[in-house]
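During data preparation, a discrete fold description was generated, and the record follows.
___
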Amino acid sequence: MNQSQTFIRRTLKTSLPPFHADHVGSLLRSQRIEQARLQKGSGEINAVELRAIENAEITRIVEKQKEIGLKAVTDGEFRRAWWHFDFLEGLDGVTGFVPEKGIEFHNTVTKAYGVKVTGKIDFTDHPMLEDYKFLHSIAGSHTAKFTIPSPNMLFFRGKNQEEIYNTTEEFIHDLTQAYKKAIHAFYEAGCRYLQLDDTAWSVFFSENGPSLIQSWGFEPEELSTIFAKMINDAVADRPDDMNITMHICRGNFQSSYASSGGYDAVSETIFNGLHIDGLFLEYDDDRSGSFEPLRHAKRSDLQIVLGVITSKFGELEDRESIKRRIEEASQYVDLNQLCLSPQCGFASTEEGNLITEEEQWDKLGQVVTIARDVWG
């Protein structure tokens, strides 16, 4: 399907995601989930009992999302400890391990965990297929949205690739082929709204990004080409009625961040070179730069989701201020191509951001209310 056909399809069927009021996906783990995980770890309950509790809590939060007025519902990533590692270690040839230290964030660090390549990468089965099927079964008339890390994340965070693969090209080939299989498997399970989460692009945003990239043995333009190719190859054969978006993030751990900087350095690639249907972009504070890079968005079929409401802190933004920010962005992109969401999820890891569950729901309700005021 070419870009003009996609735009016509979107124009005729305005119910396609991403929606004018949307959200990134992860939600604060409930106390019941946290307790059940501890009980599972101590042997008080087994895996079947844990899953039953997860099912009940996911059903509860899905109903809450519907009640708020969101069209897309997620499972809140309630079955995961990490937004990326849980999926990646479910791929053939990828194994979780405990490194010497965690991932560094501004003024904090995560617990130590990571993934490494221990064999040829493939996708033959994955536990998250069953996770999606359960979400699909309770979504009803709402759209079941599922989130997985971008293939760039294994390239970016994975270890040991060079011991398994002779060349970067061989590694990329197997990785993108595995993702193609994954996308089709989720489609067969009923998924029509899939989101790729990606923090790898943030390496291009910061001032020290170019030198860091060169220390890895790449030039910035070379690496951005690799990142774009991995995404485009992965989604190349997706069915026409499957919408795939991408969330570009600068890190989200317990209300902290990992990097800063605007989209300028790779804006043309991000806005015109990725064959996806929508982009979820962080714009909740000065770390993300201005809306000016949006001027490079020349595709009329690309929806841009403005993350101008923060998930990091509980205080509600002023509605009129948010509307003014949407209006400012519309100077670069047609208003009907814009959508609204929090800048990130509320719990990219099981620890969650420093915000209460009530504040979380208030934030999402604010998204819906403002979107109705702006787009009707």
Remarks:
- The chain has one domain: 3-30+70-375.
- Residues 1-13 have pLDDT under 50 and may be disordered.
- The first strand starts at residue 72 and ends at 73.
- The CA atoms of residues 21 and 368 lie 5 Å apart.
